[in-house]
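EI: anyone free to look at a 299-residue chain?
SC: sure, send it
EI:
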Amino acid sequence: MGKKNELDNNLLQVEISHLEEEIIYTALGNQIRRNILSFVNKHQIVGFNDLRKEFKSLKVGSLYHQLNSLKELLKQDENKKYLLSDLGKVAHNLIILNRDQIEASNVKRVTKKEDSFGKKSLELIIFFFLPRKIFQYLASEPLRTLFEGAIIIGAMLFFAIDSQLALIGFYPLEVEGWYFSTLSIIGLWTFLALFSELLYALFYKRKFNPVKLLAVVPFTLIPSMVALFFIWLQTKVTVTFLFLEGQILIVLGQIWALSLMTTAVCQSKELTMSRSSLVVLFTFYLTYAISFVFMGIFQ
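SC: here you go
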């Protein structure tokens, strides 16, 4: 036990870079990945089939996604079996250290009935604006998600074309040709995905691979879809029921879209929320700039 504790302490004292630190804490922020690390550490060397048997609730694509997220913490031997890398050993020791400290603590959690409603309300708001688990699930199987996202894009196209609107950036503008509506919706979708991916590759020196973002970005456009739906619905009824003007609805939707997009980049590209927000803010600022230029041209 003494040698094991000494080894653990040595692993925790290894100097790691800021990038390695981010890799570790991104991995440890997910319960499934913590369980995978603990399972590999327990058995020393495991095959993919061993992992499939242990984590039966995960689909094959999801399991591959989690293993890919742990590529810096796991390594494979000549038989393609998984074992902890040196950085993975540090990460696992942090799991053990944190668990021991919690168990050793004498602090007891006190739950108050009067706080339960407020707590649940706060959790609901956080889930509404930052649905991390949803985007983690969506990013795990991008091809399936791309098909589902096409349904959202299709709905936006219908509402925009039937209402004779184009989204210039995030702003609705009346147009006459259906092709303007089509180009604006498709353009917004692809621009958000491709430019965010480009900034991610440039800022953090990663490989340019926009497939996941192309798949998940339509889900960040749900606020715009909802706003387009209400504007479209208003054109179909004679009674005015919208308390807010269509453009104001779009602007309010952007606040929601900003948080959704940040969460999407965070889960798709395995970044912290702060780094994801940097990419998304640059993307949104450029979108606004382009929107104002086009609105000045067409108005």
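EI: The chain has two domains: 2-104, 131-298.
SC: 👍
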